[in-house]
Amino acid sequence: MTYSRFSFLLASALLLSAACSERGSARRGAGTSPDASGTLDSGLSDADGPDAPARPDATPMVEDVLVYSHSPEQLYSFNPETLRVTEIGSFRTAGGMTVGPMIDLAVNSLGEIYTTSAESLFRVNPETAVAEPVGSGLGLDRDEQLVALTFLTAGTLMAGVEDLIGATSGGSYYRLNTTTGAPTRLGNFPSGWRASGDLVSVERLGTYATLRTEANDGDTLARIDFAADGSSSVSVIGRVTVDGMPVLRIFGLAYWGRTVYGFTNDGWLISIDRDTGAASRVSVDTGAEQFWGAGVSTKAPVLI
After folding, report:
1. pTM for the model
2. Among the four residues 50, 100, 126, 135, which has the most C-beta atoms within 10 Å?
3. Average pLDDT of the chain to the nearest whole number
4. Cα 273 to Cα 35, 149, 255, 280, distances in angstroms
């Protein structure tokens, strides 16, 4: 069964069929944090400190890395160290006009945020949520709306370049020009897989995604490997479940430490085991009624 973010505005939101009665009852911050026994591969050495020179690869300091998420109208930040979600503001132009609804979001290694609506690509100020249109529009058919957005880590497709990729619920994916906004179709996910929610790419790990097939309406965590020619392969990790129940409509994905974070259409925040797909609730009271996307720097800290 095909579903989209737009169809849920007309339907009741349901994340876990066995857990609806728990919505709003969980404590903010209850859940899991990165395993302190792991090794933090943040790209920093013992020589790094307040007086250390800037690193040539522009690796961010751990405490400076934020995850960004959004509803159709608002931009949020998430601090993985404190597990707090904070509203930044409503998407609007510099002149104050509202824009959107925004379908998804991606962040590059410099912390620059890009979002897509049904018609356009935007560059978004991470401190104010002011959104600047990029180019004159995507020019895609409605059934080709980009529901899953990420920057691929540098060199995945082109040497030294972080390519912005957008995938559709039909299984195709495009490269987006961040100067003109023009999309270029690259291919389709193999074996009938299609985007059910989002993509997130992090250096040293690659690209994670929530996918589904026509016969499977649950969200499956997978690894996507993109070749230089734009083709891709899918390695299935497992169904995303909380307490054994499948999780649906994970419209935003991000990463920090050893955890994939999922942001759901119900406004829930969950942590997902990157090796199994098993998930835990971090918060069902994030302050957002729904999430439609999320993203993090491709240089996000990694626990290995």
Report:
1. 0.80
2. 100
3. 82
4. 11, 21, 11, 9
Residue written as token pair 């299609």? 194
| Ranges of H-type helices in the chain | none
Q: How far is CA 214 from CA 3, 7, 210, in A?
A: 10, 17, 14
- With 70 as the cut, is the pLDDT of residue 45 above it? no
Residue holding tokens 């620059």?
112
Question: At 253, phi and psi to the nearest 5?
Answer: -125, 145
Q: Decide: 155 and 136 in contact? Cβ < 8 Å.
A: no
Q: Is 56 a domain residue?
A: no
Q: Token pair for residue 291?
A: 């999430």
Report residue 115: phi and psi, to 5°: -130, 160
Above pLDDT 90, what percent of the chain? Answer: 70
Q: Which domain holds residue 243?
A: 6-43+61-303
CATH of the domain at 259: 2.120.10
